[in-house]
Amino acid sequence: MKGQHNLEAETISQLMTLIEDHPYGWYQPGKATLDAREEFIRERLRLLFVGITRARRWLLISWNIGKSTKKSVPAEAFTALLNYLERQQ
């Protein structure tokens, strides 16, 4: 969520700070959002890895460019994969 907080993650973090003996002893605004975003990215990369390693004959990878009229940049994982495949040829 660019420029926004993940309300679910932030609420859970606030509640856990109140309930548990938190290492810092206080709630850190935005940290839960960053943690949730990193977890989301890890899961997407894991799914990409599973898709790549399970492909038997063909692998087709696509992505959503969204509604933006700006030119989008491929994710770093796609760029790294493309570079790897080009080196293998």
What is the overall pLDDT average? 84
Given the helix and strand composition, which structural class is it? mainly alpha
Q: How many distinct folded domains?
A: 1
Proportion of helical residues: 55-70%
Instruction: Sum up the overall morphology in one term.
Output: elongated
| Annotation field: number of helices | 3
Furnish the topology, listing elements before pairings.
Elements: H1 7-19, H2 31-54, H3 76-88
Helix pairs in contact: 1-2
Structure report:
The structure is a single chain. It is built from three helices and no strands. The protein has 89 residues and is mainly alpha-helical. It has one domain. The chain is elongated, with a radius of gyration of 19 Å. The chain starts with 6 loop residues before the first helix and ends with a helix. The mean pLDDT is 84.
Short structural description:
The chain is mainly alpha-helical and 89 residues long. It is 56% helix and 0% strand.
